[in-house]
Design a protein that fits this description.
This protein has 66 residues and is α+β, with helices and mostly antiparallel strands. The chain has a single domain, classed as Alpha-Beta Plaits. 32% of the residues lie in helices and 32% in strands. The protein contains 2 helices and 4 strands; from the N terminus they run βαββαβ. Strands 2-3-1-4 form a 4-stranded antiparallel sheet, covered by helices on one side. β2 and β3 form a beta hairpin.
């Protein structure tokens, strides 16, 4: 599992939009986004730079936590 920080999420609609941005990402098995903590946990064998790019392009700048 990979934890990422996501900026610019202000409501549940933002969470939905961030989730949609990651839909169809090859190898991504699951996504759990936490609005209050402004982060997400992603599981699977996926391309992390592509996941971060998709979120950033959707208006939610993201980076690997830690």
């Amino acid at each position: 599992m990979t934890e990422i920080n996501i900026s610019n999420m202000k409501c549940n609609g933002c969470v939905d939009n961030a989730q949609k941005a990651l839909e169809g990402l090859p190898g991504l098995e699951s996504v759990e986004i936490n609005l209050q903590q402004a982060n997400a946990v992603l599981a699977g064998d996926f391309d992390l730079p592509e996941a971060l790019k998709r979120l950033t392009d959707a208006g939610y700048p993201a980076e690997k936590a830690g």
